[in-house]
Write a structure and sequence with these properties.
Its main location: membrane. It is found in: Cell outer membrane. InterPro entries: OMP_efflux, T1SS_OMP_TolC, TolC-like. The protein is of the alpha+beta class. It has one domain: Outer membrane efflux proteins (OEP) (Up-down Bundle), CATH 1.20.1600.10. The chain has 13 helices and 6 strands. The strands form 2 sheets. It has a 4-stranded antiparallel sheet with strand order 1-4-5-6, with no helix packed on it. A hairpin with a 7-residue loop joins strand 5 and strand 6. The longest helix has 67 residues.
Length: 486
């Protein structure tokens, strides 16, 4: 059988299975507004807290570019000072100074005296300085490129988070759909066993069966009621998980629409697509680029740097009438000779980090390939299980009808009927589970190749565009508020 032919058969089986699952749910009371899988995915895309937190992380990463671009911009500082200065001067008189230098003059021959002078000043001044880097070993250019690589990596990480959230939403939806169907089947089984117990009691009254037969029927009924309680508990758990992922309660889900037309046509094609475009791999490659550029940033610290400095200052230091004005323009060249070895260590460390990022990229590629092969196998396996479960249901139904007829003429016991009924129940539950697994596996395969996106699924939601925030902040020179006003 060709690959395309197998794919068509797989899609046909899925459509039949989904119709069967919808039919199994049809006679349950439907609420006024039933959810669809597409609406659940749309809701999760817009309101999932994990996804919104990752979007905030991308917006925070966007700020790395204006921070790096600041290296091209001038640094302007202003200074000012004001104070009070008091000077007290004490000096001898001129006659007293003369007596000290005339030899043979007796003490006291000339009159002695001192003078005291007090002067108060209020020194003050203001100035402005501008520093513009002309060359810093290409550090700024490489820092900008590093920031841009980090942003691209953050966007791919966001895309991967979107895939994970959409897959979790699809899985949670299908779990609720499965549990509703299983609960319905088990409730229907209780009704059938109640009828079996009633018939057994009637036959016991006329002596056709023994007390053992009625006890077996009653035991099976109580076991079925216990299974209903377990199904209700599992349904409540799945609904709680759905609310956690999607952000709203779910009442009655509808049968899921097939996405087989979106899937790759063959396993080699799926592997090739996943290796070329999966966001986890692309994010890892951007991490390699950023780590490599960081090496150049550290190496730039070992190169000369050239700054252009200009300053203007005005001071009033001597008295209120004195004024000193100065200005200067200086070109300053700094050549590093030895800085203690820290920069050399940072370069070596950055090289090891870059090697680590390359290994992590290889790990990401292997993980994505494994996930793709696994998802493809799950799709094929669930498709085969659906076909087997459908055949099992037909055979179990035929066997149950035959056992019931044989029991009427005494060739089968009540236990045989109950066992046949249980086989049919198990087959129906297996079909429901296989149908759920088939849909979930299809979404897992779509995620493994990097196609589980709102655009690919055609979701009717407002797309989140990370370029919007990036364009708003990239060239901002000043401003404390974020683009949304915070």
């Amino acid at each position: 059988m060709s690959t395309s032919e197998s794919h068509r058969r797989r899609g046909g089986t899925l459509r039949v299975s989904l119709l069967a699952l919808g039919a199994a749910l049809a006679f349950l009371p439907a609420p006024a507004a039933a959810q669809t899988l597409e609406s659940a995915l749309s809701r999760a895309y817009g309101s999932n807290p994990t996804l919104n937190a990752q979007r905030a992380q991308v917006r925070a990463t966007d700020e790395q570019v204006p921070q790096a671009l600041s290296g091209y911009r001038p640094i302007i500082t202003a200074t000012g000072d004001v104070g009070a200065q008091r000077t007290r001067t004490v000096a001898d008189s001129q006659l007293g100074q003369l007596a000290a230098v005339i030899p043979g003059l007796p003490p006291g021959a000339l009159p002695q005296g001192r003078t005291t002078q007090i002067e108060t000043n209020y020194p003050r001044g203001a100035g402005v300085a501008v520093q513009q880097n002309v060359f810093n070993g290409f550090q700024t250019r490489n820092q900008v490129r590093t920031a841009e690589s980090n942003i691209l990596g953050a966007r791919e990480t966001l895309r991967n988070s979107e895939q994970n959230v959409l897959f979790d939403a699809a899985q949670a939806y299908m779990d609720v759909l499965r549990d509703y169907a299983i609960l319905d089947v088990r409730r229907n089984n209780v009704q059938v066993l109640e009828e079996e117990l009633r018939a057994a009691r009637e036959r016991f009254q006329v002596g056709e069966v023994t007390r053992t037969d009625t006890a077996q029927a009653e035991s099976s009924l109580q076991g079925a009621r216990s299974q209903v309680s377990a199904a209700e508990s599992q349904l409540n758990t799945s609904r709680a998980t759905y609310r956690q992922v999607v952000g709203e309660d779910i009442s009655r889900p509808r049968a899921a629409r097939s996405i087989d037309k979106l899937l790759p046509r063959s396993l080699p094609q799926a592997i090739g697509l996943s290796q070329a475009q999966h966001p986890a791999i692309l994010a890892a490659f951007h991490g390699v680029d950023a780590a490599t550029l960081q090496i150049r940033v550290f190496e730039g610290q070992l190169l000369p740097s050239l700054n252009l400095e200009a300053s203007f200052q005005r001071r009033y230091d001597e008295s209120s009438a004195d004024r000193l004005t100065s200005g200067a323009v200086v070109g300053r060249l700094t050549i590093p000779i030895y800085e203690g070895g820290s920069v050399y260590s940072q370069v070596r460390q950055a090289k090891e980090t870059a090697g680590q990022r390359r290994l992590e990229a290889d790990i990401a590629r292997d993980q994505v390939r494994q996930a793709t092969v696994s998802a493809w196998g799950q799709v094929e396996g669930a498709t085969a299980q659906i076909a087997a479960a459908q055949a099992q249901i037909e055979a179990s139904q035929t066997a149950l009808n035959g056992v019931r007829e044989e029991a009427k003429v005494g060739q089968r016991t009540t236990l045989d009927v109950l066992n046949a009924q249980q086989d049919l129940l198990n087959a129906r539950q297996s079909l429901i589970t296989a149908q759920r697994d088939r849909v979930v596996a299809a979404y897992a395969l779509l995620s493994a190749v990097g196609w589980l996106t709102a655009d690919k699924l055609g979701l009717k939601v407002v797309r989140y565009d990370p370029n919007t925030h990036y364009d708003q902040v990239r060239d901002k020179w000043i401003g404390l508020r974020t683009p949304d006003g915070r």
